[in-house]
Amino acid sequence: MVTIIPSNFYTLDGTDSHADPSNPLFRKINFEHEAAVRLVSTELRRAWTALPPPGDRDSKSEISAVQDFIRANRDKTPEELAAMAIASSNPDTQSIHTSWRDAVYDQWNNVLYDVGKFLPEICPGDLCHRPPDCELFALEFHGDDVVRVWDQDVLLIPAFLKPGVSIRVKILQQRQQDEVAPDEGIPDEAGSDPASSAPAPFDCDSTENLSTGRRVVLPDVEVGVFDASNPCEIWYIKQGTSVCFHVDIGGETGAKGLAAVIMYGPLYEMNDDEREWREIESSRVSAMKTAGLM
Hints:
single chain; 294 residues; alpha+beta; seven-stranded antiparallel β-sheet; four-stranded antiparallel β-sheet; 25% strand; globular
């Protein structure tokens, strides 16, 4: 299902049809029509694969160099960008942390923050991202699947995805309590615990079972794929959700090493100052769009 929201973002829900749409475990957020966010994310991925400018720089100067890289590419033609990618391609595709790549990761905070400004229209609660606050994890070819469970709601997006790679993402088995049954937790006349003789968990696809008030089991479900076809997707994951990441290389057997780097940023409940700032920013953006400046 595609959900249009009052901005240039829209969401694509990928969870089970019985999930509460007002309290999702997972949402895909597409920002392809938000030009500034699309530009920054595209150039940050390009910067990850590029050779850094020559010279020694401290961390602050390295961040400035990444920002200069983005600005310099803003007005280049596709042909110029393709030629630059060949000329300045970094042969090192295995190092996760270098001073240049750490500066690239830092700038993903801008993407997370901009998407976070619209989260109240997408997800429950008044959530926001507070830069600088993002982390990463790596996925390797022929490695074990990576399972993550976050203790906060998060946004996540690939910072690097090797050409030809697909990252398949699955939500592992979740339990959802519908309405508590009238005798839940009350011993029967024989003194036994009713939970010990309760029927086995059932598949949530059964409508009849959903009305009983017993605990239902949501089956593992593949919710999406990160690959070259969706560079403008960032995903919302609810805290406590077990998420499995699997590297798919389409049958290729010779690939080794690093396949992808996934960025994620925790989300927080907004305070009063953040709510006030968001209202001001929303009004400013609306005025600019009305004037045709965005």
